[in-house]
């Protein structure tokens, strides 16, 4: 009898590919909504009369919302299921995006961006947990990581859309930019109709008949799950958040949250204030800075695509560590040479974007692999919230930092944070390549859990 379950050892099926597209829709829309605001702010600032503080709040509001959404809805997803929450959060994203086109005061755009952030924060643990729990071992990291690729596809397309609006209609088209997310939002919402619930989650709740039926529809065989143990441990099931605050799980939270925060804080600052930062380096504002941000956005995407196969060929841990090492180099150059030639600035930003692909891919793969089903979405929500503390603070402080320390000082700060991510990864990063989900999430590496032993018997 194989030591892997049907889910773990399954070949890649059309079902998996369809589920990937359904799950990726949320990250695609998230990338769209979080990046296009950087271009929209150029026209929004004079029309709404935004001061430095209001500009900072407008940029950081969505990130603060992601913090709240991840904490609240990650746990709710573990309690009531992945599939239901899968649809609700997209509706909120579409409605809030539409309302952004009608704002007349600063507080309104800040409030709506916060709501958008809450919905995005909810989608991260929902989509990643659902996809992870259906995937076979050999495709797990690459396919979960590809959700991040779709995030960058959405970001790149949005910056091109925003650039197009600005070039054709001028900076006053910022309302259309912010509302443009409703088009992909409605399409994604329709695609998600009929998405099945995770059998692992159903089993963790003791709903064996439903898990049996779902697995049979997908794999075309009669799989008996009645003897499968319903919980990883009663302590984990009952504790929820508390289980993440002690022992091995706390160590994993520190690892995932630490490297995630270090990776996304500079990234979101670049996306939110890309044209502003490029102008500070001496590139003119307007079309030149828009074009520069578009190029960098595309290279973030390329970096993720390059990193995808490396998660399986070289492993998660080496990819994460060496990516942080390489990310330090261009940030240090930008800090040391803020008045350098335009080509050097673009090359350094481009190199950072390419090298950041490793951490970006693993931000969602790692937490979904190393936490058990009962608290997987909860952990992903907590890790997302931790990352957004840094991202929100960094995005809020960036305009202020540019005024007080100059762009060189800001780049040195980004390099320092990247160094922290490197240190956390060297000390705490595990290797999960080639391990079943039960093995990877076990607090005793190399040993099967009670659930896995039961799973071996029943073949799920």
From TrEMBL:
Cleavable signal peptide: none
Keyword Membrane in annotation: yes
Organism: Arthrobacter methylotrophus
Main location as per UniProt: membrane
Gene3D superfamilies according to UniProt: MFS general substrate transporter like domains
Keyword annotations of the record: Membrane, Transmembrane, Transmembrane helix
Family membership noted in the UniProt record: Belongs to the major facilitator superfamily. Sugar transporter (TC 2.A.1.1) family.
Record-linked InterPro entries: MFS_dom (IPR020846), MFS_sugar_transport-like (IPR005828), MFS_Sugar_Transporters (IPR050360), MFS_trans_sf (IPR036259), Sugar_transporter_CS (IPR005829)
Protein's name according to its UniProt entry: MFS transporter
Domain annotation Major facilitator superfamily (MFS) profile: ranges: 19-433
SUPFAM superfamilies assigned to the protein according to its UniProt record, in alphabetical order: MFS general substrate transporter
Cellular localization per UniProt: Cell membrane
Membrane topology (UniProt): Multi-pass membrane protein
Pfam families linked to this entry: Sugar_tr
TM segment ranges: 20-43, 55-74, 86-104, 110-132, 144-170, 253-274, 294-312, 319-337, 343-366, 378-398, 410-429
Keyword Translocase: no
